[in-house]
Amino acid sequence: MTAPSRRERLRTTTVAEIKSGARRLLVDGGVEAVSLRAIARDMGMTAPAIYRYFPSLEALVGALAGDLYEESTALLEAARDGAGEDEVAQLLAMARAFRAWSVAHPAEFGLIFGAPTPSATTFFDTCADADHPGARFGAVFVQPLVELWHRSPFPTPPPELLRRHFEGRLEPLRQSHGEIPVEVAWAFLSGWTRLYGLVAMEVFDQVSWAITEPEHLFELELTTFATQLTPHRP
Amino acid sequence: MTAPSRRERLRTTTVAEIKSGARRLLVDGGVEAVSLRAIARDMGMTAPAIYRYFPSLEALVGALAGDLYEESTALLEAARDGAGEDEVAQLLAMARAFRAWSVAHPAEFGLIFGAPTPSATTFFDTCADADHPGARFGAVFVQPLVELWHRSPFPTPPPELLRRHFEGRLEPLRQSHGEIPVEVAWAFLSGWTRLYGLVAMEVFDQVSWAITEPEHLFELELTTFATQLTPHRP
DNA sequence: TCATTTGAGTGAACGCCGTTAACTATCGCA
DNA sequence: TGCGATAGTTAACGGCGTTCACTCAAATGA
């Protein structure tokens, strides 16, 4: 691990500048506005120069998607770490942080959580299954759920029902998180699905025909979700 | 209402041929593969000819999105009409039909239920709020829910909690469906959000790192959803 | 120190794309 | 029969990703 040479440092900053230009275009024009020629123009370069740093536009967008995945994962971790000891409070803080980030960054959300573009596809295919960006993202949710389950088990559908549906199909999840109680796996999949649905519907503008200020629907669902994570009074 | 002239008939079939070419390109190349030149090539025409029928590529893709919305709405109605009298059975049949269609038509799903492209945006903006395609789509779900609610009310969060969160924010929904009990509005929004989340996650390939055969997760969630629509035993 | 190799960047070109403009030929109708 | 509307053409412009041949400066090694 030797110190980076001057050339390597320059290269790193250039890569960063390319990516930040790409993100700027993404933010104010959608993914189809990201073009090598526009990035190069903004940098005072010509388009073919970018091929010294990325093999194609697709690869550049893929790398950007990877960065965004990391950014949102770090965001979740920060929300969790700032929410005290109670796991339910941690999960609620993470959900709120995720929604806030997504609503504030619709283009970025669309790139990593929307329909898989060729760029995203080729990028994610280069990731080993165990450290798929989605796996590290999901892990931040799984950990508090596991701890909550051991401290104060929440109600779930009957475990034999869960086992019947999940039988042998949780291998990918197990590969990145080790053995997990089937109830926790269910809570994660069910909860993440609901969170994703709420946020994606709002970001993709699929509910504005029915409700204004979808944040209140979000908070309502969060309330009922928190209730479901609390043991029912006997 | 006079019979369409020969010219009008030719025009109609040409429009249909353009759209079907566009859909073919959409299906096996994603939305970014839809190009006027490719469509025209497949039809043995030149690209500018298409401007006799659509003012821009954006408008063509928008019209295609409108057709797809109609297609999926009709699909839901067919599923409902083939599911007998019981409203819960109707809702389950609709959910299954929606998932099946979406999984079988990922590109079409992405176009109308994914991140809004400029094309979709400009198209949906041309729709009046009351007959927004989403509203007609949602109506198919709302109707059985209303009937079920009147026949056999399902458990919901406390109505005062619902009212507090929905206060004055359901105007768009009311405009297309008239007065609706707040409990039904909640059931629709909550249920549609969960259904959308499940299907979008599967179609957009956001869960393959955790679970294989997501259809079983879908069926599991459907089971618990049906339970929640049934009055709890006293 | 000087020659050489490496790397970054350029300019021209190819073939796509959407879109516009000018033009032609055909069809339907009075 | 003639005329206007309609459907189609070709040519062109600018933008795009990408490739290739090239230049020039920086790092390297004898």
Automatic annotation (TrEMBL), chains A, B:
InterPro entries according to UniProt: Homeodomain-like_sf, HTH-type_TetR-like_transc_reg, HTH_TetR, MT1864/Rv1816-like_C, Tet_transcr_reg_TetR-rel_C_sf
Decide whether keyword Transmembrane is in the record: no
UniProt xrefs under Gene3D superfamilies: Tetracycline Repressor, domain 2 (1.10.357.10)
Q: Which residues form a coiled coil?
A: none
Pfam families linked: TetR_C_33, TetR_N
Task: Give UniProt keywords alphabetically.
Answer: DNA-binding, Transcription, Transcription regulation
User: What's the name of the protein?
Assistant: TetR/AcrR family transcriptional regulator
